Amino acid sequence: MNIEQETWESAALCKDASLDFYKLSPVNVALCVEMCNACPVKAECLNASMFPRLEESGIWGGMRPEPRRSLRRRTMKANSLARQDA
Question: What dihedral angle (degrees, nearest 10) is formed by the CA atoms of 79, 83, 84, 86?
Fold first, then answer.
């Protein structure tokens, strides 16, 4: 863990939460996403879960693994296309 990650993690609403962000039942996911949506470091969390490698489980930045995987794929493709155009 680097200093930048420690900084955003210390501001995360979930850091002391009793919710299980790895239990993907519908009710638990809804509660986790609700907390994520109110979190001041939601974007940082989502980014950390996708780069440099994909976090394969849990709720990160308000997203379940499958949508996060799809977003990462689209982001990497867009970045690749942008580099080709440059």
Answer: 140
Buried b / exposed e along 41-72 (16+ C-beta atoms within 10 A): bbebbbebbbeeeebeebbbbbbebeebeebb
pLDDT at 1 over 60: no
pTM beyond cutoff 0.85: no
Contacts of 31 (CB under 8 A, 6+ apart): 19
Q: What is the pLDDT of residues 34-84, one digit of tens each?
A: 999 999 999 999 999 998 888 999 999 999 999 999 999 999 999 888 788
Count structural domains, the chain: 1
Domain extent at residue 75: 3-85
Burial class (CB in 10 A: 0-12, 13-18, 19+), 19: middle
Helix axes 42-50, 26-37, angle to 10 degrees: 120
